[in-house]
TrEMBL record:
Gene3D superfamilies for this protein: P-loop containing nucleotide triphosphate hydrolases
Protein name listed in UniProt: ABC transporter ATP-binding protein
Phylogenetic lineage: Bacteria, Pseudomonadati, Pseudomonadota, Alphaproteobacteria, Acetobacterales
Domain ABC transporter: 5-242
Keyword field: Amino-acid transport, ATP-binding, Nucleotide-binding, Transport
One Pfam family, short name: ABC_tran
Family membership: Belongs to the ABC transporter superfamily.
Species the sequence originates in: Roseomonas haemaphysalidis
Length: 243
């Protein structure tokens, strides 16, 4: 079923540091939207606000899932996860001493997701055959690309409708970035997800994004309604492509 996000005029701060300044954006049902920007421009902060890990100081965030709109602003993160919103965090944040399967199961810790563990685990192993082969291996002994697959799999274990992916390219060789991005597109198709992906790797992001926004110093400085429009923007060409 359909899930969409509306972010309206959101401000967020860390003490005196204003990290988001009047950010408004939308992710329509079934879209993949890229949130572009170099380091420190507010991508992670926006992801944290959506998931309820940081409370915006102004504005609102609304998710509409299966026809029901919920104002997420100020809701606890667990309740937001229960609604069907999952985050694949920057740097993956896995438990290196635990096995692949143990890490995957941690994604299904909420009561609502627990009932669906067998089905979601099967789906994960279907989508990531390598994880099935390695399911008893400790995650810390796996390659960066494999770890990124575990992080994606863990998010899928809570049966999300909206997937937030924060900088999946961090720490990965270019070929692995390409594979990760393709996997995100594949998961999106198979599960009918709506995806918001923060990424500073412009070329990889626009391979799968329908459109995107560029954040600069916590503000949306450009909105491109297609990958071509993003690539043609002076802002993107100057700051991200060095042209
Ligand atoms: N915990 C924190 N305490 C204080 N300031 C923070 C904190 N986290 C982020 N910031 C600041 O907020 C701003 C936005 O950071 P944010 O992490 O959202 O950017 P980003 O675009 O995701 O970059 P990165 O890819 O480096 O995470 C930056 O100026 C950053 O220094």
């Amino acid at each position: 079923m359909a899930a969409s996000l509306l972010i309206e005029d959101v401000d967020a701060s860390y003490g005196a540091v204003r990290a988001l300044d009047g950010v408004s954006l939308t992710v329509a049902a079934g879209e993949t939207v890229a949130l572009l920007g170099t380091n420190g421009n507010g991508k992670t902060t926006l992801m944290r606000c959506i998931l309820g890990l940081l409370r915006p100081t102004r504005g609102r965030i609304v998710a509409t899932i299966d026809g029901v709109s919920t104002d997420l602003t100020g809701m606890p993160a667990e309740a937001i996860v229960d609604l069907g919103i999952a985050l694949v965090p920057e740097g993956r944040r896995l438990f290196p001493r635990l096995s692949v399967e143990e890490n995957l199961l941690l994604g299904a810790y909420r009561r609502t997701a627990r009932a669906a563990i067998p089905r979601n685990l099967e789906f994960c192993y279907d989508a990531f055959p390598r994880l099935k082969e390695r399911r008893t291996q400790s995650v810390g002994s796996m390659s960066g690309g494999e770890q990124q697959m575990v992080a994606l799999g863990r998010a899928v274990m809570c049966a999300p409708k909206i997937l937030l992916v924060d900088e999946p390219s961090v720490g990965l060789a270019p070929i692995l970035v390409a594979r990760t991005v393709e996997k995100i597109a594949e998961l999106k198709e198979k599960l009918g997800l709506t995806v918001l992906m923060a990424e500073q790797n412009f070329h990889q992001a626009i391979r799968i994004a329908d459109r995107g926004y560029v954040l600069v110093h916590g503000r949306v400085e450009f909105r491109g309604d297609s990958p071509a429009a993003l690539g043609d923007s002076d802002l993107v060409r100057k700051f991200y492509l060095g042209l």
